[in-house]
Amino acid sequence: MAAMSSTERPRAEVAVIGGSGFYSFFDEGAAEVELVTPYGSPSAPITVGEVDGRRVAFLPRHGRRHEFAPHTIPYRANLWALRTLGVQRVFAPCAAGSLVTDWGPGTLVIPDQLVDRTSGRTQTYFDGGGIHVQFADPYCADLRKAALRTGTVDGGALVVVEGPRFSTRAESQWFARQGWSLVNMTGHPEAVLSRELEMCYATIALVTDLDAGIDAGDGVRAVDVFAEFERNLGSLTSLVHKAIAAAPEGPCDTCRVHEGATLPIELP
After folding, report:
1. Other C-beta atoms within 10 Å of 218: how many?
2. Is the four-CA dihedral 180, 185, 186, 188 of positive or negative sign?
3. Which residue among the candidates 154, 211, 215, 224 is catalytic per the annotation?
4. Of the candidates 106, 124, 130, 265, which lies 20 to 30 Å from 148 by C-alpha distance?
């Protein structure tokens, strides 16, 4: 695929941000777009193609060869680049550890809450101007509904840890006692940056393991996580395709959070 200049740049209404092991989305017919944002370059060139008659942008969160660890991903550049292409709705498939014994590897979960346990990550575009976005419900209800299918789990809290290490047994047991359902390393600040850009956003979590304090085994190993993700990539990709087809057009009113506010920066 040849890179396109800004004058030839395609537009997209929906985006998919691929997680660990999810590095490509289109088989053919996609255009590749290279962008530089005020926050640097995104994780990889963005590919834009068509899914069920809708223009879709795909960006591998960790890069095409998993160059970026969770704490080094250029989150602000990624979301800004997608908005620059006209994206209004974002599906964010990811790998996650389960804190619920009944949700074993291969379970697909559409979480409805998020808990931030990261540290040191820049999580806003607004360093001034008194801009404080509504975030009580971090995921778009319209996109969650579009992703829900028979066999997927409806709801659950995703706790996001800094990484790149996995949790200790004590940490994962504490997370489970709080009533949280999943643990992941990339769900924040991606969700709040999408909200600041007024893009609807929903996570589709693929369970790859029971977390260390939930399973009595040797603990989580990255090689096993990647292998489990690969085994279930087909079903995850199929779900993402169906979610794209079912997603309503345009951003929802709930995710338009800047009405009446004067922003200190101009959004793309």
Report:
1. 8
2. positive
3. 211
4. 124
E strand or H helix that includes residue 78: helix 75-84
Annotated catalytic, 211?
Answer: yes
Residue of 112, 116, 142, 209 marked catalytic: 209
Q: Locate 207 and state its tokens.
A: 């369970």
**N residues, the chain:** 268
Would residue 218 show up in a list of annotated catalytic residues for this protein? no
